[in-house]
Amino acid sequence: MAARSGAGDFTSNLGRIYGIYTGGFLGFVILLAILEQVGVPNRIIGYLFVFFTLAVYAGIGILSRTMQVSEYYVAGRRVPAVYNGMATGADWMSGASFVGMAGTLYALGYDGLAYVLGWTGGYVLVAVLVAPYLRKVGAYTVPDFLAARFGGNLARFLGIIVLLCCSFTYVVAQVYATGIIASRFLGISFEVAVYVGLAGILLCSMLGGMRAVTWTQVAQYIVLIVAYLVPVVLLSTQKYGLPIPQLTYGQALQDITALEQQMLANGLAAAATLKPHFAPFTNLDPFNFFALIFCLMLGTASLPHVLMRYFTTPSVRDARKSVAWSLLFIFILYFTAPAYAAFAKLEVYQNVIGVSMDALPQWIYTYGNLGLVKVCGVNATALEAIRAACVATGSADNILAHADLAINNDVIVIAMPEIAGLPYVIAGLVAAGGLAAALSTADGLLLAIANALSHDIYYKMIDPNAATKRRLVVARTLLVVVAVCAAWVAATKPADILSMVAWAFSLAAAGNFPVIVLGIWWKRCTTAGAVSGMIVGFGMTLFYLVMTKYGGMPLWGIPGVTGGIQNISAAIIGLPFGVAVMIIVSLMTPAPSREMQDFIDEIRRPRGPTMMVEKTS
């Protein structure tokens, strides 16, 4: 009772607690700005940003430690809708959205909007088709729901396979992002930096589970959204006198177009290398553009770590409200990402293209040494290396041309304050925001994996009589094991962040979306149909993704429609077959029992108690 009363006191004072936290964080940023002005070295400021924010998150995680099963798995189902929306926003943003989104828009222009449309549109599906109904069931995990709906452990086991594949792929991307940030601002190698980020992830999530992750993610959202908005607001004010970048980046695009015409006239660029910013389908053909939107939407409504967040609300109604708050908090960043990309490109065109090789800004070498900026095809590690490469490629006029510079998409956001010549404290702030985004998502993903392994495999399938203490020890041990494996894979730099994330969405869409939605909305869906559809849909998607990426198999094309279906949209291959098999097999097998059909009717009834009452001791 005392623990529950303390939790109630905490939740009733959330506004004051996080108001004080926000004020303290802004005060900390101002203090570091003052320290920069009085001559404190940039490296010290970078250390303070990284370690102070990690210490705060770790402190929240330690203070939120728990030995109660419901608190560890679903935060006691007492998270208010607005704060759950904020935590979901942080959980959702990830290194892909914070670090990779603006960089993708920088590189792809209009076609990059497929990511924005797919991810935001997916939350409509979450609100309408999925979240409230999963909350009504009262499961701890998505595989837990599948077992309740389809009976036995086969559906549960397949749900675990899907969860592990999509969540592990996603968490590797987050650890990769923390490695990029930590290596830049701590001055250590990328391979070591991923393990530094890993330590921060584990401190946030290991002791307190979902309760610790929830309150940490609220704090992380505040940091990441402030960090994302400040640089672009400053640039919008400096250049156009209006601190609303969403309204001024149209002018920035016009200025970019004018600069491109100047580059063409001066011989610094070729028309073939300059892609129109407003023209659609210059990087993705129409089929792949809409296929990507489709896969990201359905993946959003299927990702286990996102759906888990709606298990934590007090009621079905709060789950629905929470989705609306989530969309608002996510919209703030996504509405700013195109402006971020436009201002970054404008700064590169104004301050870098056309300058002498002898006068290249320091940030090019800083990120070149991390393998993230190339000049004339080689990493920009030193002036001599650049000159030699430019002579070898025929670009020996000592002037940096448009085609000579290649910036990794994942570095655009992190480097933009330095590209624009803003104070270093702004660069440190952006790093802290990117770290918060990556850590928050990694926490949620690792918790989803560990919970599935400890709850669905160990407790439900191996030792149903396990005591609470043993269950939580198993969960924490598995959390560490999975996290170390993710860091080891991330250290190999398997792909760019956004590609890895897109794979996770396709795997989740093909494996989870049909079985969850039909399980809720079609009473005739049977266990045999669900199992068969998951195997076919997920199996085909995984096969296409792996073989086209690593097996040398060519992309499958559709004559007259597309030359090849991109593997980031692999669910478009497997999902239709999975749905068809699920329906056909369900119609060919006996209908679910009357008891199960009544269970499904009750799922769709918003009022009433939670249907699965968990064991808490």
Can you describe this structure?
The protein has 617 residues and is mainly α. The protein has helices at residues 2-12, 14-37, 42-63, 69-74, 81-108, 113-137, 142-150, 154-186, 190-205, 209-240, 245-265, 286-300, 304-307, 316-334, 337-351, 362-368, 383-392, 412-419, 424-462, 468-490, 497-521, 527-550, 571-588, 594-603; strands spanning 373-375, 378-379, 405-407. It has a 3-stranded antiparallel β-sheet. A hairpin with a 2-residue loop joins β1 (373-375) and β2 (378-379). It is globular, with a radius of gyration of 25 Å.
N/C terminus separation? 14 Å
- Sheet with most strands: strand arrangement: 2-1-3
Uncertain segments: 1-6
The average pLDDT is: 86
What class would the helix/strand composition place it in?
mainly alpha
Strand segment count: 3
Q: How would a textbook summarize the main sheet?
A: 3 strands, antiparallel
What does the radius of gyration come to?
25 Å
Helix content: over 70%
Q: How many helical elements?
A: 24
Q: What is the overall shape? A: globular
Note the run of SSEs as H and E.
HHHHHHHHHHHHHHHHEEHEHHHHHHH
What proportion strand? under 5%
